[in-house]
Design a protein that fits this description.
2,3-Dihydroxybiphenyl 1,2-Dioxygenase, domain 1, eight-stranded mixed beta sheet, about 25% helix, 2 domains, globular, binds fe (ii) ion, nine-stranded mixed beta sheet, alpha+beta
């Protein structure tokens, strides 16, 4: 790698713009088990927005709401008016945010905001951002000498959540319009230097009624994985189109969170009231032939509705939540990897049929 590369260390956090950050924070703590670690709002001198930083394991979410309708509040309110609650920013930690921004813009990325310095008594950080699909952005963050709870401007807050054993962020999936997948694949290649890790054609991801295409962009170590979905022509409206209709643009369809013990995690989440997608019992009758011997007991997987898939490197266990908002848009995935670096290709059909049944109940499988 030369000096002109953007070296992404990790996804620092995912920020959601939401209608009521105080209530969203309660939801992610009580339902998903995140702990509140930092807060910025009126009490800390933030006059335009309230933000709560939530963390579980290494995964950090931020939920943000505007206070007003003018100035810096305005674009936040506009985002919520158009999209409902949703992901605004997948924030990337880099060595130097200003340099990363300059390189990205030189490679054709559209600026969201120019580099700025953030400073408080805990130190100084830098931040800039570029636009991606829909109204989503990637901000570049460099933490410099900052040693505070989250980012400059935030005060420490320690409010525990009902911990569910979630350990880290795994992947972030975009839904884009028909015919735009290749454009964003090219963007991630050109601007961020990622590479195509996997592709799934509509033959892999089709049901009787609908289909989609998907490409997974990743870095060399595969610590960063950004799948991109587009609808493919089918007899009825694809789940990707349903998302795009209700989000009113491309955006983040789901975020996958890693756990080291999916049985325990899903039990906790169910106790906390989280609702998951269910596949028919027939799925579990076919599973042993497909997956072979695994450590987890089949009845436990079936009871909890957890799916399994394998490749030559190992297997994975996964489950999707129901959408987290009234609009059928963003959901979360819980995933445990036992060697397998894939995305559950063997489960796509069962999962997408389950999504379609919900889509049909909503009157959107037309
Ligand atoms: Fe996923």
């Amino acid at each position: 790698m030369g000096d002109q590369d953007i070296r992404i260390k990790r996804v620092h956090h995912v920020e959601f713009y939401v209608g009521n950050a105080k209530q969203a924070e309660f939801f992610y703590r009580q339902a998903f088990g995140f702990a509140r670690v930092a807060y910025a709002g009126l009490e800390t001198g933030s006059r335009d927005r309230a933000s709560y930083a939530l963390r579980q394991g290494k995964a950090t979410f931020v939920v943000t709401s505007p206070y007003g309708v003018d100035g810096e509040s305005a674009p936040i309110g506009e985002h919520i008016r158009k999209h409902g609650d949703g992901v605004r920013d997948i924030a990337l930690e880099v060595d130097d945010a200003e340099k990363a921004f300059d390189i990205a813009v030189a490679r054709g990325a559209e600026p969201a905001y120019a580099p700025k310095e953030l400073r408080d008594e805990h130190g100084t950080a830098k931040r800039a951002a570029v636009k991606v699909y829909g109204d989503t952005i990637h901000s570049f963050l460099s933490l410099g000498d900052y040693r505070g709870p989250f980012l400059p401007g935030y005060a420490t807050a320690s409010v525990p959540g009902r911990d569910a054993g979630l350990a880290a962020l795994d992947h972030y999936v975009a839904n884009v319009h028909l015919g735009e997948m290749a454009k964003w694949e090219e963007w991630y290649t050109r601007v961020l230097g990622l590479r195509r890790f996997m592709t799934f054609e509509d033959a892999d991801i089709s049901t009787e009624f609908t289909a989609l295409n998907s490409v997974v962009m990743a870095n060399d170590s595969r610590s960063l994985k950004f799948p991109i979905n587009e609808p493919a022509p089918g007899r009825r409206k694809s789940q990707v189109e349903e998302y795009n209709d209700f989000y009113r643009s491309p955006g983040v369809q789901h975020i996958a969170l890693l756990t080291g013990d999916i049985l325990a995690t899903v039990r906790r989440l169910r106790d906390n009231g989280v609702n998951f997608l269910r596949v028919p019992d027939a799925y579990y009758e076919a599973l042993p032939a497909r997956i072979g011997n695994i450590a987890e007991a089949l009845p436990a997987l079936k009871e909890l509705g957890i799916l399994a898939d394998k490749d030559e490197d190992g297997y994975l266990l996964q489950i999707f939540t129901q959408p987290l908002e009234d609009r059928p848009t963003l959901f979360l995935e819980i995933i445990q990897r036992k060697g397998c670096q894939g995305f559950g290709k063997g489960n796509f059909k069962a999962l997408f049929e389950a999504i379609e049944r919900e889509q049909d109940r909503r009157g959107n499988l037309v």
